[in-house]
Amino acid sequence: MGKSYMAEPYKIKVVEKIGVTTREQREEAIKKAGYNTFLLDSQDVYIDLLTDSGTNAMSDDQWAGLMKGDEAYAGSKNFKTLKNAVQDLMGFEYVVPTHQGRGAENILSQITIKEGDYVPGNMYFTTTRAHQEMNGATFRDVVIDEAHDSTYEHPFKGNVDLDKYQALIDEVGADKIPYICLAVTVNLAGGQPVSMENIKAVAEISRKNGILVMMDCTRFVENAAFIKEREEGYQDKSIKEIVKEMFSYADGATMSGKKDGLVNIGGFLALNDPDLYTKATALVVVFEGMPSYGGMTGRDMEAIAIGLYESCEYNYISHRLEQVRYLGKKLEEAGVPIVKPIGGHAVFLDAKEFYDHIPQDEFPAQTLAANLYVESGVRSMERGIVSAGRNKEGNHYYPKLELVRLTIPRRVYTYAHLDVVADSVIELYKNRKNAKGLKFVYEPPVLRFFTARFELLK
């Protein structure tokens, strides 16, 4: 019988032992953590699918690059290496390094947003919207409607609805819209890509109205790979060629290097406008560090530069997407409700369908993430009503998607690990009617999903 998956395009040189716990130990650990998987100790986790952010395995070339770290406080040679990589792969003129992606989001929001502005985007992301709102803007979701339907099969579910975008411009005026935040891919839709055709159309509307196009390019290589697979005219283009074209339609980008940069920390803000760059460098000194390191060590910048190139290698990204699909297909074949089509960085469980007897304000996704940990030691992440937070009036946002994210770190786990995950989820699904929801016992005012605590409902 032939293999049913693509073998790893790498070999393992170093291993790390992981803990194996009993069910009793996990029950105690999740209770101590307030049923919030973010508050678990990693030593109590068997397979960690909380995030793909900073959890990647670096290559031998990246580890070698660490030894080239120039830790000068100003003028580090590693900054030049990073800047050259961004200019070469993405085409942006200016690079402002930051400690991670949210540092770039903070600076971009402060230099572009005025009180009363609106920022459209193809679905919100937690930290991005928080920075926009803290600087006085209102976020408007302009993603296509299909993105909010977990069962709908669409090759580019992250696309902007151009009519929604134009309607917002007509409603509030272009002068109230500093930029559109275009995520490639869209995390909370299930890791869904944006087509090149849609990117071009967004850029055309934006430039006609004097609105900047700012990409959240955290997973830009995954987006490029989907374009290569699914969009007419791109099958014979290299990942690098597709990446370069994608960014040619943007005025700037925020980047968390902890994803497609294949490193454990770091990020940057990339820009083309010299005036915005000047404003950004003034703020990076306040919040991050000198413009030539911005919260990173020299060795981190060297590793990101190498990682950006490695991420654009076709063999790497093909295996990356195939690993995610492997897990998704196993769950789909067992009847487990997941977001379709399977995305680029994670498999998303539809907790509304999984626990259809638990109301959304009893946090079915949070419940499912906690129960999966107890079942198997697999740590996942809630992406539903808890992550969505509250509006300015203090009421819950009720997102249409109530999801649990099984996020696959890059170059870390084998297919055997994914089999364990699949078997655990399937077992939970068989016994789903026994689950009970949760209630808050502690709720922070901002980004509550990170540190909130819950207890089981009776």
Describe what you observe in this structure.
With 458 residues, the protein is of the alpha/beta class. The protein has 2 domains: 23-52 and 314-456, Alpha-Beta Complex (Aspartate Aminotransferase, domain 1), CATH 3.90.1150; 60-311, Aspartate Aminotransferase, domain 2 (3-Layer(aba) Sandwich), CATH 3.40.640. The chain is 40% helix and 13% strand. The chain is built from 16 helices and 14 strands. The chain has helices at 23-32, 60-66, 77-89, 101-112, 126-134, 162-172, 196-208, 220-230, 239-248, 274-287, 298-311, 314-333, 351-354, 364-376, 385-388, 415-430, and strands at residues 47-48, 94-98, 118-121, 138-141, 179-183, 212-216, 252-256, 267-271, 346-350, 378-379, 381-383, 403-407, 438-442, 453-456. The strands form 5 sheets. It has a 5-stranded mixed sheet with strand order 2-8-7-6-5, sandwiched between helices. The protein has a 3-stranded antiparallel sheet with strand order 9-12-11. Strands 1-10 form a two-stranded parallel sheet. Helix 7 (196-208) links the parallel strand 5 and strand 6. It is globular and about 60 Å long. The relative contact order is 0.17. The model has no long low-confidence stretch (mean pLDDT 96).
Chart the SSEs and their pairings.
Elements: H1 23-32, E1 47-48, H2 60-66, H3 77-89, E2 94-98, H4 101-112, E3 118-121, H5 126-134, E4 138-141, H6 162-172, E5 179-183, H7 196-208, E6 212-216, H8 220-230, H9 239-248, E7 252-256, E8 267-271, H10 274-287, H11 298-311, H12 314-333, E9 346-350, H13 351-354, H14 364-376, E10 378-379, E11 381-383, H15 385-388, E12 403-407, H16 415-430, E13 438-442, E14 453-456
Parallel strand pairs: 1-10, 3-4, 5-6, 6-7
Antiparallel strand pairs: 2-8, 7-8, 9-12, 11-12, 13-14
Helix pairs in contact: 1-14, 2-11, 3-11, 4-5, 4-10, 8-9, 12-16, 14-16
